[in-house]
Design goal:
- This protein is α+β, with helices and mostly antiparallel strands.
- It has two domains: 358 residues, Up-down Bundle (Outer membrane efflux proteins (OEP)), CATH 1.20.1600; 71 residues, Outer membrane efflux proteins (OEP), CATH 2.20.200.10.
- It is built from nine helices and six strands; from the N terminus they run αβααββααβααββαα.
- The strands form two sheets. Strands 2-3-5-6 form a four-stranded antiparallel β-sheet, with no helix packed on it. Strands 1-4 form a two-stranded parallel ribbon.
- It starts with a helix and ends in a 33-residue tail after the last helix.
- Keywords: Lipoprotein, Membrane, Palmitate, Transmembrane, Transmembrane beta strand.
- Belongs to the outer membrane factor (OMF) (TC 1.B.17) family.
């Protein structure tokens, strides 16, 4: 009895020893800058400090585009990558429940009836070689979590479940941002097509004027050919732009979970007469990205899961204890199966220890440690990537605004040069090649300005994506992205042509 008490007294010491095997989880440290170096380059924007709950805000509504809002709703309801992420979350939730079930005993009910013939040489003479056996039993088995293996499995499963939940937010944020960027690109192409259509009409009139001057003997055949070549080259540009629009529309269909044949988006050009200003996105402090970005949250949770896997691997060095118990009835006649003499029972522990495994447990532990180191590196890389993406988009927004100003000035200069060269050509003091040159330059400058505005909108979407989603404070409502307006003129200044 004394020895039994001593052995029982050793159990708490063993448990304490086992606990030391469990590596305590600590969130990996990362170097966090005090501020974004590009933040000061964006005029009029302020630093915000939003929390994780703002990931679900409908930030895309800040662009005040009803068509975009409708497309986002369709994408959230039907995008297959989002369906995949949600299915993976349900699978992770089921796996978490599986891990928890191991904390409880397993109880099984069994019933059997067998009829067998024994060898007549193996039974006494006169004994019936036919034997019938009936069994009815209830068995229970339970593995006490002495070394914490099951608890570590639960810890790992819960962390992976949280990571899977964050993956849904990653997929949703990526989906909406990709859709918004593709949609704005579609509107850029619509605006350029409207510009090209108006330009082609003007070039057609210019070509006719040149032809009339040739017939009157005041222009050369070369002038006519040059005007015709510019007209045809512009048709080529228009065809290429229509191809790009078709491909952009197909990409949007894929994001909506549809086949390209199922989607037709009506043309909706920007109104270039008004200033296209993307909504101002309040930039979070660098440290807030660790709370806002769902991909960072998912990476950190996978680090926690990998840390728990080390503890699971180390518990393999200790013996496993399985407590079993059973009770029931057994008889060779069904008529007296449920009776006191037919009762059977059993109870007892089963202890198993792996004495030799050829280095299996060490290899598994080493693999778990390496897996943890890999997830830490991935987490830190995700954080660094997040900082880079915010800096990239802040720089893009600042420099694109600068580009737009320069491009506006370039349009003014090329339009003035076009008007002057046209007047001099009519006066017979300038070759028609100069008119062609400035017509081309003016068209290219106008197309570039449209593209820059599109890139500004896409950069603002990319910044929203980089900071982890929406924001709580009310943003500027003055964005001139009214999708219901159909402008008559897309650029304010079209190429001037000779008449």
């Amino acid at each position: 009895m004394h020895h039994s008490l001593q052995r029982l007294a050793l159990i708490p010491l063993l448990l304490l020893g086992a606990c030391s095997l469990w590596p305590e989880y600590e969130k990996p440290a990362v170097a966090i800058p005090q501020a974004f170096k590009q933040a000061d380059t964006v005029n009029g924007w302020k630093t915000g400090q939003p929390g994780d709950e703002q990931l679900r805000t409908a930030w895309w509504e800040s662009y005040h585009d009803a068509q975009l809002n409708s497309l986002v709703t369709q994408a959230i309801n039907a995008n297959q990558n989002l369906v995949l992420a949600e299915a993976n979350f349900r699978r992770a939730a089921a796996a978490s429940s599986v891990n928890r079930s191991a904390l409880w005993p397993t109880v099984t009910a069994n019933g059997s009836a067998t009829r067998a013939k024994r060898s007549t040489n193996a039974v006494r003479i006169g004994a019936d070689p036919i034997i019938e056996t009936y069994n009815l039993s209830l068995n229970a088995s339970w593995e006490p979590d002495i070394w914490g293996r099951i608890r570590k499995q639960i810890e790992s499963g819960d962390a992976l479940l949280q990571a899977s939940k964050a993956d849904i937010e990653v997929s949703r944020l990526s989906l909406i941002a990709s859709l918004a960027q593709e949609y704005f690109q579609l509107r850029v192409l619509d605006t350029q097509l409207l510009l090209l259509d108006d330009t082609l009409k003007a070039l057609d009139r210019s070509k006719q004027v040149t032809l009339n001057r040739y017939r009157a003997g005041v222009a050369t055949k070369t002038d006519v050919n040059q005007a015709d070549a510019l007209h045809k080259n512009t048709l080529v540009v228009a065809a290429e732009t229509r191809l790009q629009r078709a491909q952009s529309e197909h990409a949007i269909a894929l994001l909506l979970g549809k086949a390209p044949a199922e989607l037709n988006i009506a043309a909706n050009p920007f109104n270039m007469q008004t200033q296209l200003t993307p909504p101002a996105v309040p930039v979070s402090l660098p440290a807030a990205l660790l709370e806002r970005r769902p991909d960072i949250s998912a990476a950190e949770r996978r680090v926690a899961a990998a840390n728990a896997e080390i503890g699971i691997a180390k518990t393999a060095y200790f013996p496993s204890l399985n407590l079993t118990a059973g009770a029931g009835y057994q008889s060779n006649a069904f008529s007296n199966l449920i009776s006191t003499p037919s009762r059977i029972w059993s109870i007892g522990p089963l202890i198993a220890l792996n004495v030799f495994d050829g280095g299996l447990r060490k290899a598994q532990t080493d693999a778990a440690i390496a897996g943890y180191d890999a997830t830490v590196a991935q987490y830190r890389q995700t954080v660094l990537t997040a900082f880079q993406e915010v800096e990239d988009q802040l720089a893009a927004i600042s420099l694109l605004s600068e580009q737009a100003g320069y491009q506006q000035a370039a349009i003014k200069a090329s339009s003035d040069a076009l008007q002057e060269s046209t007047n001099r050509y009519k006066a017979g003091t300038l070759d028609y090649l100069n008119v062609i040159t400035w017509q081309t330059n003016t068209l290219n400058n106008q197309r570039n300005l449209i593209a820059i505005h599109g890139r500004q909108l896409q950069a603002s979407v990319a910044l929203v994506r980089a900071i982890g989603g929406g924001w709580s404070n009310q943003l500027n409502a003055g964005s001139a992205l009214n999708s219901t307006s159909q402008p008559e003129n897309t650029s304010g200044q079209h190429p001037q042509t000779t008449h």
